[in-house]
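Recap from last week: sequence in, structure out.
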Amino acid sequence: MLKTFAKGGVHPPENKLSANRPIETLPLPARVSIPVSQHIGAPATILVAKGDKVKVGQLIAQSAGFVSANIHSSVSGTVESVDVVLDSSGYKRPAITIVVEGDEWDSSIDRTPDIKTEINLSAQEIIKKITDAGIVGMGGATFPSHVKLSVPTGKKADVLIINGVECEPYLTSDHRLMLEKGHELMVGIQMLMRALNVDRAMIGVENNKPDAIKYLTEISSSYKGISVHALKVKYPQGGEKQLIKALINREVPSGGLPIDVGAVVHNVGTAFAVYEAVQKNKPLFERVVTVTGKNLAKPSNFLVRIGTPVSELISAAGGIPTDTAKVVNGGPMMGKAVVDVNVPVTKGTSGVIVFPATESKRKTESVCIRCAKCVSVCPMGLEPYLLTRMSQRMMFENMEHERVLDCIECGSCSFTCPANLPLLDYIRLGKSEVNKIVRARKN
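Predicted structure tokens:
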């Protein structure tokens, strides 16, 4: 019997349209706009000015604290401006815009195709390399990876969990990475194991990717301590707490972190980035992005430089269909509609989905009938209908008591609601207000 988490979950249509499309390298754009806040935590401090010449891989913004991340140039050329640009949510954020002139890489980066398997660095040296490279969680959360690897005093990790679930419909970038970069992925996992001082790593992959499960199982036998586990297809199995429950049957306590139960979770994309950073001295300045949609001419998986306009990815996939009504950054369950297709790709951009009008309009809302379907599918055991009512009435202190901060914003409640209520929208609003209350209390 396939493993899975026990509480809640839904089964949205998979629509993995680009699963059989190998990763293609996207041509360089004319210019890139690289935001200095592509991660959870403090924005990086800008190190360059208008008119400066930069190379691929050069540090252009330095982390501004422990919970922050370095930013590197993804292209070579001239800094055109240091200003604000729109992000995918429509907010103006500080960014460095660079006009592309050739493709000159920093000389310290190893660009040879050889796979380097020998690991000679200590745990602290590996963590420093990861910190310097600006690596963050590649599954979308963008939490600085070195923070996860710095286990707090009094805590101890005994297992590394690698998230290859990719449970969001449409997205296939992780799937292709597992198929095409398997050995590099394994070496990256070994480095993470050494950094955490653990001797066991478990790769969780949903059973709708049998080719990836078969391939990784075959090659993992050559890498000590790494095992591959097929999981039942159920959304949101890619959530950290759900994946931990499915693989090792441990439950992260309310308000707690995976390390509280001896686990550290990293995405497969993160593990690959770790390999490139440590073995190739390559900072995180490009990533694989799925570009897809039912009416798109060529759903694809592209290797994209950070800062590339989303419009360039859509053009490479055949262009925007005439019936397009919405473009979503991320997956359809947790992603958000972009306000402008010229917003830049960031470290957290896992996918771009183009939706036609027939699939992007909100359905007509009706009255909540207290059916409790939202309660039955919530993977965190919350009461979404109640949290929504409280948010509508601005009862934010009550929402904190009802554990709104445990919400992982998976959207299962909205997906299953027969009244078509925007439950997640209200819960997100309330959650942001509760976070403000918590921060004010700490200060």
